[in-house]
Specification:
The protein has a nine-stranded mixed beta sheet with strand order 3-2-1-4-5-6-11-9-10, sandwiched between helices. It has a two-stranded antiparallel ribbon with strand order 7-8. It has about 300 residues and is an alpha/beta fold. The model has no long low-confidence stretch (mean pLDDT about 95). It contains 13 helices and eleven strands.
């Protein structure tokens, strides 16, 4: 499967990229960045750093730093991801450079090059995808599918009672993507909150990662601390990596088909609305085999690190 990873690194984004790179049946073509967990410049620098750190040799394209309607982000969730997006660990200046082309232009070009073959795994706001849809009338028809981490169907949001962070970050972009006709799977809070990494699990993962182990432990300190403080949990949810898990093995999930939409006005702004229908172009994940997902995550990554 030819994959583009659209991301706003982000601690859970880093964990998802590590997983994606280790999946043998996922062919990562490029990383595109989007504002979200930090500024667009910081997210792009983080993506470059992570590709270098994880020995991932793909181009990185800088994406949108504002919403589809021009709105600027008011602040960033540094209480979740740290002020630099990666748990405030000291980051080396990347030796590799970002590509000159904008992310949405790259998406349009790669979809033309491989019509019907490209899957976009989007784990941030959907602005880059919406820009590509708006800029090229053929884009929607050229994309195989979109897998996005975001939204909530049968559970509450995590920013408001109705809205999840990635969707409320740019609801207009989400509405454009949902209305494009592209086959789309929502891997939202209904399943990502069901799968959680414990401290013991994280220690086991780090022990199998060799030189990367300390880095993985370090970046997750802030993330785990947020859920300890806010929820009283000694574990944290697997958000972005769940979207990668769907791409790698969708048998881990149960879904319903139908049509997605997004509320744009009022107190429910950013809410994902889903109407079930057997022939709908959209799928929403409603259940996951959390134990099997965690086993797959661990075995895939640790196995990839071994010579």
């Amino acid at each position: 499967m030819k994959v583009v990873f659209d991301t706003d690194p982000g601690i859970d984004d880093a964990m998802a990229l590590l997983y994606l790179n280790a999946c043998n049946n996922l062919d990562l073509l490029a990383v595109t960045t989007i504002v979200g967990n930090a500024s667009i410049d910081q997210c792009t620098s983080n993506a470059l750093f992570l590709c270098e750190k994880f020995d991932i040799e793909v181009p990185v394209y800088k994406g949108a730093g504002q919403g589809i309607n021009g709105s600027e982000p008011g602040d960033f969730p540094d209480f979740v991801h740290g002020s630099n997006g990666l748990g405030d660990v000291i980051l080396a200046v990347p030796r590799i450079s970002v590509e000159s082309l904008d992310a949405y232009d790259y998406l349009v070009n790669i979809a033309k090059k491989y019509p019907g073959e490209i899957t976009i795994i989007a784990v941030g706001r959907l602005t880059n995808l919406a820009l590509a849809i708006q800029s090229d009338p053929d884009f929607a028809g050229n994309i195989k599918d979109i897998i996005f981490m975001g939204g909530a169907y049968l559970c509450e949001g995590n920013v408001t009672p109705w809205a999840e962070a990635n969707i409320i970050g740019d609801p207009e972009a989400a509405a454009i993507v949902f209305g494009s006709g592209i086959s789309t799977t929502m891997v939202g809070l209904d399943v990502t909150m069901q799968t959680r990494m414990s401290k013991d699990y994280l220690a086991k993962l780090a022990a199998g990662l060799g030189d990367l182990g300390d880095f993985v432990l370090d970046i997750n300190q802030v993330y785990a601390g947020y859920y300890q403080t806010s929820q009283g949990w000694d574990e944290f949810p697997v958000h972005d990596s769940s979207a990668v898990a769907w791409a790698d093995n969708n048998n881990l999930f149960s879904t319903v088909s139908g049509k997605l939409d997004c509320v744009l006005i009022g107190e429910k702004r950013g809410q994902t609305v889903f109407e079930p229908h057997q022939t709908g172009a959209h799928k929403v994940c409603i259940r996951v085999d959390a134990k099997a997902l965690l086993e797959s995550y661990l075995n895939t990554i640790v196995g990839h690190q071994r010579p």
